[in-house]
Amino acid sequence: MTPTAAPGNGSTRSSRRSSAYDLIAIAASAGGIAALLRILRALPADLALPIVIVQHRSPHNPEILPRILERASSSRVKLAERGELLTAGTIYVAPADYHLVVQPDRTLHFMDGRRIKYVLSSANPLFESAAKVLKNRVIAVVLTGSGTDATDGVQTVKEMGGIVIVQNPEEAEHPSMPASAIQSGAVDYVLPLDQIPPLLLRLATANHTEASTE
Question: Of the listed 15, 19, 56, 129, which one is catalytic?
Answer without folding.
Answer: 56
